[in-house]
Amino acid sequence: MSTPSSPTGPRAWGMLLVLCGAIFLEGADIAMMNVALPSIRADLDLSTATLSGVVSAYVLGYGGFMLLGGRAADLLGRRRMFLFWLVVFLVFSGLGGLATDGRTLLVARFVTGVSAAFLTPAGLSLITTGFSGERRERALLIYAGTAAGGFSLGSVAGGLLTGIGWRWVFFAPVALSLVILLAAIPLVKDRAPADRPALRRLDPAGAVSVTLAMLLLVYGVVHLEHPSLTTAGMFAAGLAVLAAFVMIERRSPAPLVRLGILRSAQLVRANLGAGLLTGGFFGFQFLATLYLQELRGWSALETGLALLVVSIDAVLAPTLTPRLVRRYGHTRVIFVGFLLALAAYALFLQVGPDTVYAAMLPTMVLIGLAFALAYGPITIAATEDIDEREQGLASGLLNTAFQFGAAFGVSAVTAVHAAAGSGYAAIRTALLLPIAAAALGAVTIATGVRSRRTAAAPAADVQEPTTVP
User: Fold this and answer.
1) CA dihedral in degrees (277, 278, 279, 283; nearest 10)?
2) Which of 80, 94, 354, 395 has the fewest CB atoms within 10 Å, i.e. the most exposed one?
3) Cβ-Cβ contacts under 8 Å for 264 (sequence gap 6 or more)
4) Residue 216: in which H helix or E strand, if any?
5) pLDDT tens, per residue, the chain with 469 residues
């Protein structure tokens, strides 16, 4: 059996456009939902616990099934998984828009999160296996910029759509996903390895245990702001099941997750960096929203417009970042990105009751630059030099790190903010966490810079043999 060739020319960039549309849809869906929550609560008369559950249900589905989704793309077909779960995303987004009670909304958001957990690694691995060389790096940077643009533009779109009616926050993704689906059927191709394992070689024990472990750990993370014995129990149970999963994978003849993939220091650094990057940003975004809306009285739309500057990375990621990566390498570029994030969060410490937007603008610009330099190159580093048969797994690991980081960042700053009281002092105290995340991210990536220098040093001492005339 021959391996399908990678798409070329207009077809390749058409496929990239479809995959970028899907990741934009995912980011915009999350951002729009966050903006619409107060209106949903008022219309459906939801309790605070149910409203929090609307967010947590999506995170549980997304984070809990991400590793399984990544491996399923490798074993069952990336194109097949992408198309099937895009349809599921479409159907349950529509169900959310039709919901008349909290229970239906919770089910809709959970299944939408599960569909995103399968859809996202399938889409990313279609890029990492469908492009090569500089075209691959450029495609990944465009993809990463589009993902970040979905989050920032989604906040503005959510404000506009909520003004019409909160149900449009669900119906708009239905329309967009239908367009993406119709374009994906002819354009998306899968370079499936010829030796893909048969269905009978799937690892059901590994699949069940890793999914259960992820669900328990994500539950613990999203409830960190309300610590209790239940939260501690979920963490303990999650770690125990995760340990059982490791034992299962070591003994399995066809493991769901080949543990040897974690021997790659670059992959581990990239995943740690991914979690710290999103943890710092989503923690900051939560605090900035509290500051602007609750302390300053800005509307949801005004807050979305204030954060819109961050989306400059959607322009810079495919234009500036590729040149920097080619010249300096992705490790150094990521390192500078973390330094810019550190400066951005530190600058926001000065905000007060009379701070004008011009004083906040440097923070927003620096965050946009930080994401332009870090997000895409982290994606490159996490999937580079990984065997094609495990690109879905590598993508699942990376997106799990992104998701855990985001959930942990929001939960941690919420807990610190609540403990610090209220007002501007509480905002400044909680901001120390995004600052610490950016600093730790810079240190983590700096170890990669040093290791590359060490590896290059012996090579520099080797002299080419001279030819005696």
Assistant:
1) 120
2) 354
3) 385, 386
4) helix 204-222
5) 334 445 556 788 899 999 999 999 988 888 888 778 878 888 888 876 677 778 778 888 888 888 888 888 888 889 999 999 999 999 999 999 999 998 999 999 999 999 999 999 999 999 988 888 888 888 888 888 888 788 778 878 887 888 888 999 999 999 999 999 999 999 998 765 545 555 445 677 888 888 888 888 888 887 777 778 888 898 999 999 999 999 998 888 878 788 888 888 889 999 999 999 999 998 898 898 889 888 888 887 788 788 888 888 888 888 898 889 889 998 999 999 999 999 999 999 999 999 999 999 999 999 999 999 998 899 889 888 788 888 888 888 888 888 888 888 888 888 888 888 888 999 999 999 999 999 999 999 998 765 555 554 444 444 444 433 3
Residue 251 in contact with residue 273, Cβ under 8 Å? no
What whole-number distance in Å separates Cα of residue 412 and Cα of residue 225? Answer: 6
Across the chain, how many H-helices and E-strands are there? 16, 0
Tokens of 420: 């610090």
For 84, 124, 256, 323, the CA distances from 78, given in Å and listed in that order, are 10, 9, 16, 30
Give the DSSP H/E element, type plus range, for residue 430. Answer: helix 423-461
Closest CA to 335 of 257, 250, 452: 452
> What count of residues does the chain have?
469
Radius of gyration of the chain (CA): 22
The answer to whether 444 touches 273, Cβ cutoff 8 Å, is yes
Q: What is the Cα–Cα distance from 338 to 282, expressed in whole angstroms?
A: 14
- One-letter amino acid at 442 equals A
Show me where the domains of the chain are located. 9-190+256-451, 204-255
Residue 397 CB partners (closer than 8 Å, separation 6+): 67, 70, 261, 267, 271, 382
- Which residues 6+ apart lie within 8 Å of 282 measured at CB? 405, 406, 409, 410
DSSP string computed for 240-256: HHHHHHHHHHHH-SS-S
Structural contact between residues 300 and 158, judged by C-beta atoms closer than 8 angstroms: yes
Angle between helices 9-44 and 168-187 (to 10 degrees): 160
Q: How far apart are CA 360 and CA 97, in angstroms?
A: 35
3 state DSSP class of 296: coil
Please measure the distance between the N-terminal and C-terminal CA atoms of the chain and give it in whole angstroms: 52
**381: Cβ–Cβ under 8 A, 6 or more apart, which residues?**
266, 267, 269, 270, 273, 330, 331, 334, 448
DSSP 3-state of 126: helix
Helix (H, G, I), strand (E, B) or coil at 409: helix
